[in-house]
Automatic annotation (TrEMBL):
Residue ranges of the annotated DNA-binding region, renumbered to this chain: 44-63
A matching Pfam family: TetR_C_46
Organism the protein comes from: Nonomuraea endophytica
Protein name in UniProt: AcrR family transcriptional regulator
PROSITE patterns with a match to the protein in the record: HTH_TETR_2 (PS50977)
Length: 223
């Protein structure tokens, strides 16, 4: 036994020496896993420290407090998701939409904790900076869809249709993570078909949407 060390200290495995960035990433990953399963107010710094195999003091050293950690963890998840939401140009609009959905669900599958943490909780958890993070992801997805549909300024009816579809995609992602009883390609195809159906309904209420719907149908299903 090393002089000056107790038997308990000698038996404790040495903590890995990690870079600052790597240690922050580990703490945020542990936090996201917890935030994906419980509301933020039900997760303590001690919980995060225990899950990460770190000390409470270390968590405070890197993040200052739980709210700062919560925001940093959600920002990390949002940035990773937004990096997948890049336009794929050159194909038919609905093909581009399908490709975007595949990238979206790649993130859902590969970063389940981050996705669930982003969308978990009610309005009380979505105020201030946290709400801005979540809304930022939705706005990025909205702009991507808008670009895929070759629409510069959507009408109120089209805007509502797209926002409704994004909400459906988010809900489908959370449900799929919980149950996984639908094959991913089937779910993705169903969501593309759902967009077509929503546009078909919206076309009855807006001339611009009717023109868009007919154009998409013509490009996707040429005579």
């Amino acid at each position: 036994m090393t002089p000056g060390k107790s038997s308990a200290e000698a038996a404790r495995p040495a903590r890995r020496r990690l870079s600052v960035d790597r240690r922050r990433e580990e703490l945020m990953a542990a936090a996201l896993e917890l935030f994906s399963k419980r509301d933020a107010e039900d997760v303590s710094i001690d919980d995060v420290a225990s899950a990460a195999g770190a000390s409470r003091a270390l968590v405070y050293h890197y993040f200052g407090g739980k709210q700062e950690l919560y925001v940093a963890a959600l920002k990390s998840a949002a940035q990773q998701l937004e990096s997948r939401l890049r336009p794929l140009e050159g194909g038919r609009p609905l093909d581009e939409l399908a490709a975007g959905l595949r990238r979206y669900f790649d993130f859902v599958e590969e970063h389940a904790a981050g996705f669930a943490a982003l969308l978990r909780g009610g309005p009380a958890n979505r105020a201030g900076e946290v709400g801005e993070i979540v809304d930022g992801v939705r706005q990025r997805l909205f702009r991507l869809i808008q670009k895929q549909m070759r629409v510069d300024q959507p009408s109120p009816v089209l805007r509502t249709t797209i926002v409704s579809w994004i909400a459906s995609v988010e809900t489908a992602g959370l449900d799929w993570l919980e149950h996984r009883d639908i094959e991913r390609p089937v779910l993705e195809k169903m969501l593309v078909d759902q967009m077509i159906a929503l546009l078909g309904v919206a076309a009855n209420y807006d001339r611009e949407v009717r023109t868009l719907f007919e154009s998409l149908a013509h490009k996707q299903f040429p005579a």
